[in-house]
Amino acid sequence: MVPRVIFGQGSFSQLGEILLPKRKNADAPFIFLIDDYFESRELVSQVPLMFNDKIIFVSADEEPKTAQVDALVTLIKDEYDELPSGIIGIGGGTLLDLAKAVAILLNNKGIAENYQGWDLVNKPALYHVGVPTISGTGAEVSRTTVLLGPEKKLGINSDFTTYDQVLLDPDLTKTVPKEQWFFTGMDCYIHCVESLTGTYLNAFSKSYGEKAMELCKDVFLGDISGEESRDKLMMASWHGGMSIAYSQVGIAHAMSYGLSYLLGIKHGIGNCMVFQHLEEFYPEGVALFRKMVEKHDIKLPKNVCSNLTQNDFDVMVNVALGLEALWENALGKEWKTIMTPERLQAMYQKI
Ligand code: NAD
Ligand code: ZN
User: Fold this and answer.
1) 80: which of 52, 96, 244, 265 lies 20 to 30 Å off by Cα?
2) pLDDT at residue number 183
3) Residues enclosing ligand 1, CB less than 6 A?
4) Of all residues in the chain, what percent carry a pLDDT higher than 70?
């Protein structure tokens, strides 16, 4: 679990205070990895830079890659004689995941792809702080950093991945465009559905999942807006992340990983494109999802898989079926008899 968290509108102004006691010395900088959306925005002037601290702006147009993590680690090691005092990730799931991975790789030998999997990290990461600027993924609270590698899209899942400190300032999400707000918010909603209906469910996950679900319903189907809505979605993301931390996601995530690997379709929208077709597995969840799509007048892309080759389908099906825990959570221990490659391909063909 994240050991330290602060929450509140305007709390970003406390980042300097939080970092000060963690500064090793004047030569060990803090490195801020910030979504390049903020490059010419006010937030940059509020970043508490001291000594030789550095801001690196990173585009979130593509999901984080193992090679990108390795390049950032090399850049930081080449520029400074000492290891940094810490890494601060500011942005959505993309930046939050990148910052976690960079913090791990700065203190562990080798390259990022070696650590994709479960509990392969040997040494603690550098001190790292997460500051979400869009709500939904739960990346701020999870013990994974999802990376696209040369062979697979898979997280670095470890106890050292989790942030040492998270700063939740709902004001930072004010500028998120509506469609992106919806897609990333639906990531949280789908986490709840997949966790709450899964065979891995337990009282720990259920308590967080139910709270996140209630908050999602308020945000996406209730009549709240503005501050209240931003506050609630930020807490929904947190609880949704906590829920899957002790259970698993399911079919939408497995299939969305395949779409992302082959076609570069991003996580939030990819989940939505898949989830709308999963009523036979998640009848109540999909019915509610459709209401949310309608209420917010969201148009999802169509016929995305219509021109794919058999080889393309094979790749996606392999990536998706490789995520065994997700299928077992969704369909039980005998999932292989239920979800055959042929059936999965037919499901992809609907998207
Ligand atoms: P994102 O980080 O990819 O950002 C989406 C878009 O929103 C980008 O264009 C970004 O620039 C913009 N944006 C972010 N904050 C903004 C703001 N305040 N104002 C205006 N624009 C803003 O989106 P995401 O959906 O949060 O993250 C997706 C990533 O999260 C994927 O890479 C996925 O694999 C990962 N993920 C990780 C976990 C985890 O547990 N580690 C869980 C789910 C998803
Ligand atoms: Zn997700």
Assistant:
1) 96
2) 98
3) 35, 37, 60, 63-64, 91-95, 97, 133-134, 136-139, 142, 144-146, 172-173, 175-176, 180, 184, 187, 266-268
4) 100
Domains, in order of start, for the chain: 4-173 (3.40.50.1970), 178-349 (1.20.1090.10)
Which 3 state secondary structure label does DSSP give 219? helix
Could you tell me how far CA 17 lies from the centroid of its own chain? 27
Chain centre to alpha carbon of residue 223 = 27
Taking only the tens place, the pLDDT of each residue in 105-162 is 999 999 999 999 999 999 999 999 999 999 999 999 999 999 999 888 889 999 999 9
What is this structure's pTM?
A: 0.97
Q: What is residue 15's three-state secondary structure? A: helix
In angstroms and rounded to an integer, the radius of gyration of the C-alpha atoms of the chain is: 20
Residue 22 has pLDDT above 90, yes or no: yes
Written in H, E and C, the secondary structure of 243-292 is: HHHCCCCCHHHHHHHHHHHHHCCCHHHHHHHHHCCCCCCCHHHHHHHHHH
Q: Interface pTM (ipTM) of the complex? A: 0.99
For the stretch 325-338, pLDDT in tens is: 999 999 999 999 99
Torsion sign (Cα): 102, 87, 176, 227: positive
User: In angstroms, what is the span from residue 332 Cα to ligand 1's centroid?
Assistant: 30
Mean pLDDT of 272-286: 98
Neighbours of 219 (CB within 10 A): 25
Determine the Cα angle at 205 with ends 202 and 210, to 5°: 115
DSSP 20-79: GGG---TTS-EEEEEEGGGTTSGGGGGS---TT-EEEEE--SS--BHHHHHHHHHHHHHH
Phi first, then psi: give them for residue 169, nearest 5 degrees.
-120, 100
CA-nearest residue for atom 38, ligand 1, is: 139
pLDDT score for 151: 82
> Hunting for tokens 């969704």 — which residue is that?
330
